[in-house]
Design brief:
The protein has 346 residues and is an alpha/beta fold. It contains 10 helices and 18 strands. Strands 3, 5, 6, 9, 10, 17 and 18 form a 7-stranded mixed β-sheet that branches. Strands 13-12-11-14-15-16 form a 6-stranded parallel β-sheet, with helices on both faces. Helix 3 (143-162) crosses helix 4. The longest helix has 20 residues, at 143-162.
Length: 346
């Protein structure tokens, strides 16, 4: 009930399972809307926060940065939305005024906060958020799919843009979770000549094959050797590392052709070695990819409306807003044994 108590699943202690809590339902500020959460994706980053690999703003905190729902209440200054609007949420809360926001790189906003990391997020029944980060959701896109698009798909889109992927180029995608399957479909939409999908999960590789990629099982062969064999020694124009392992980061560099670009998306506290001879002599580039841009999200929603981004094979499981069920998924993600993407349905 509004103004009283709602259910949330929160991180209380680092490296401990999340807990069910009852907390006050947020009241929207003048420029905010209160959103009744219909779907909240569970991301591998949430496991990093749980384990202390990445820090959170405070504890206890409600995790979850992939959120879609229905507007329940408007702040006093809100004019562009109505109660009942279907929406999805950009996970960055930004000022819109600093040098980074003005130049369109608002993921580095000087006052920026990330929902589910710096402020309470989507593992709850409701969330209040400034309208700057709220997007109206077309009826043709489900809440479950929209929630995942706000992170995995948008990050994959940003990675392709950062690596300057062009029609007619080849790409290797290391890791076939939610990001990887989104990256595969987006690369197709952008006119990829060939897509090489690398993983150790045979089911995920089969899905990638069904979607038009060339699967490479890293359990059965060296993926770099296989890519070189399939490209007749050339390598790929672009590689995306979406796992966060030193091994696959190294493989990503070595899989590149001359002038190839590697986008590092996966996060790890570990380092990896780079051969300066190979990198310099072939003019390879290694590019960091951080989050996404607010301006990229309408384009992403448009691709989904056109059917060029279909997340029906990405959102493979739903769980209730209960700590026990969510913790199971967190442990699976930590062991790289989870489904493509699991979504919480409060």
């Amino acid at each position: 009930m509004l103004g009283r108590i709602m259910k949330a699943v929160q991180l209380i202690k680092i490296d401990k399972d999340l807990e069910d809590r009852e907390i006050p339902t947020p009241v929207p500020k003048p420029d905010e809307v209160l959103v009744k959460i219909e779907a909240a994706g569970i991301c591998h980053s949430d496991v990093h926060y749980r384990d202390g690999v990445s820090s959170v703003g405070y504890r206890p905190i409600t995790l979850g940065h992939e959120v879609a729902g229905v507007i329940e209440k408007l702040g006093s200054n809100v004019l562009d939305f109505q109660v009942g609007d279907r929406v999805c949420l950009n996970y960055m809360i930004t000022c819109g005024k600093c040098r980074f926001c003005v130049q369109g790189t608002e993921q580095f906003c000087e006052q920026g906060k990330m929902i589910g990391k710096d402020v309470d997020g989507g593992y709850a029944e409701f969330i209040a958020i400034p309208t700057r980060g709220v997007l109206k959701l077309p009826n043709s896109i489900s809440f479950e799919h929209a929630s995942v698009m706000m992170c995995s798909s948008s990050t994959s889109l940003h990675a392709l843009r950062k690596t300057r992927f062009k029609p007619g180029e080849t790409i290797a995608i290391f890791g076939l979770g939610g990001l990887g399957i989104s990256a595969l479909q987006l690369a197709q939409a952008f006119g990829a000549r060939a897509i090489y999908a690398i993983d150790i999960d045979s089911k995920k590789l089969e899905t990638a094959k069904e979607l038009g990629a060339i699967p490479i099982n890293a359990m059965n062969s060296d993926p770099v050797e296989k890519i070189m064999e399939l490209t007749v020694g050339d390598g790929v124009d672009v590689a995306l590392e979406l796992i966060g392992l030193s091994l696959t980061m190294d493989q990503g560099v070595r899989s590149l052709a001359r002038f190839g670009r590697l986008g590092l998306v996966g996060i790890t506290a570990n380092t990896f070695d780079i051969s300066s001879y190979e990198t310099i002599c072939r003019e390879k580039e290694i590019i960091g990819v951080s989050d996404h841009l607010l301006s990229e999200l309408p384009f992403l929603l448009n691709l989904a409306e056109q059917g060029k981004l279909d997340l029906s094979k990405v959102v493979t499981k739903t769980v209730p807003l209960e700590a026990e069920a969510i913790n199971v998924v967190h442990h699976q993600l930590k062991e790289f044994k989870a489904d493509f993407r699991t979504v919480i349905k409060p």
